[in-house]
Backbone:
């Protein structure tokens, strides 16, 4: 046997070392992932048990049913949690993870789909369905009801939160801390789309202190049973885009303002607000302020653009707000109802179909 065949030559050792270093830098491979199923008679009966056995990159599938007191802290760096079939419901039942929430997301890239969270209560009064602390969290088709905070984040300056097609509502009606349905701290970015928020109490429906907030195509309407304060509160300004939403204040609203911007002063180097193509509805008999901007508390060059919105019901734009106000239209509930039910509207079920063989 030659020396070259019995031991690695120097160039071979260098190649092996380089290959190992490259392998360490490559992204995680899907082939190494496992799927853990949670539910009666499955791999894990409780979510917390599945989580203890999950590694980075795994998927946890949760079968339908109620999971009471099944609280947990998610520490994996990459994880997908998915409810299968009818949405599984996690009920706090007097328990919490670290005195914070039903689930605490510590750090990493986590996706949570089709899970419902109910009844979070903690001693500090801000028990959340999910407490998001750092990393990147994606929430899709989830629901948060009767929690002191539906979803609450930390103030991690690098964190990103994305929420799609989810449902928040039914704030608890007891004294103590303000119970916001969705409370986003001073994180890097926040996106809310295709979601519904309703029936708040004293607190706000959406509150975001993020550097960048994108709130698009949602139904943010407190409803007849709601008693929220602001529908959208952006207390520290930031780069905010609010487009294509229906934003509604109920008759029992605690505060006349629907959208508030900059009330607590600036926290970011740049602030700018675009409020466009929304329908803002006020049912409060005493009237409303559809947008209130505290420009004296924001950077001198803060831009405000209020474009092509429809307002319904009694109310005004804040007279002290400076910026571009273009294409906005006001109407009454009666006029809107007439527009939707009058002769100009045709019931598709009664509309005669065109026969291409007949003129």
Residues:
């Amino acid at each position: 046997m030659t020396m070259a065949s019995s031991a690695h030559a120097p160039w071979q050792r260098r190649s092996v070392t380089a290959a190992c270093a490259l392998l360490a830098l490559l992204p995680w491979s899907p082939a190494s992932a496992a799927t853990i199923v949670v539910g009666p008679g499955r791999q894990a009966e409780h979510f917390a048990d599945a989580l203890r056995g999950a590694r980075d990159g795994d998927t946890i599938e949760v079968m339908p049913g109620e999971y009471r007191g099944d609280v947990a802290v998610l520490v994996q760096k990459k994880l997908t949690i998915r409810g299968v079939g009818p949405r599984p419901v996690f009920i706090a039942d007097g328990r919490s993870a670290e005195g914070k929430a039903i689930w605490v997301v510590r750090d990493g890239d986590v996706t949570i789909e089709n899970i419902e969270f109910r009844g979070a209560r903690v001693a500090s009064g801000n028990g959340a369905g999910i407490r998001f602390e750092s990393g990147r969290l994606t929430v899709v088709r989830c629901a948060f009801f009767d929690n002191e905070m539906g979803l609450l984040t930390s103030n991690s300056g690098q964190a990103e939160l994305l929420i799609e097609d989810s449902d928040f509502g039914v704030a608890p009606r007891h004294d103590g801390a303000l119970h916001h349905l969705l409370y986003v701290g001073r994180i890097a970015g926040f996106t809310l789309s295709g979601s519904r928020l309703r029936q708040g109490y004293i607190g706000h429906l959406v509150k975001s202190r993020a550097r960048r907030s994108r709130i698009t195509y949602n139904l943010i309407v407190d409803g007849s049973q709601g008693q929220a304060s602001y529908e959208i509160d952006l207390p520290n300004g930031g780069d905010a885009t609010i487009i294509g939403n229906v934003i509604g204040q109920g008759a029992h609203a605690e505060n006349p303002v629907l959208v508030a911007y900059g009330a607590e002063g600036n926290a970011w180097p740049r602030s700018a607000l675009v409020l466009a193509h929304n329908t803002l509805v006020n049912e409060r008999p005493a009237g409303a302020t559809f947008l209130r901007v505290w420009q004296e508390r924001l950077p001198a060059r803060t831009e405000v653009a209020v474009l092509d919105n429809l307002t319904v019901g009694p109310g005004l734009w804040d007279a002290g707000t400076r910026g571009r106000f273009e294409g906005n239209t006001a109407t009454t509930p009666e006029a809107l109802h007439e527009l939707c039910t009058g002769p100009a509207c045709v019931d598709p079920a009664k509309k005669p179909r065109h026969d291409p063989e007949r003129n």
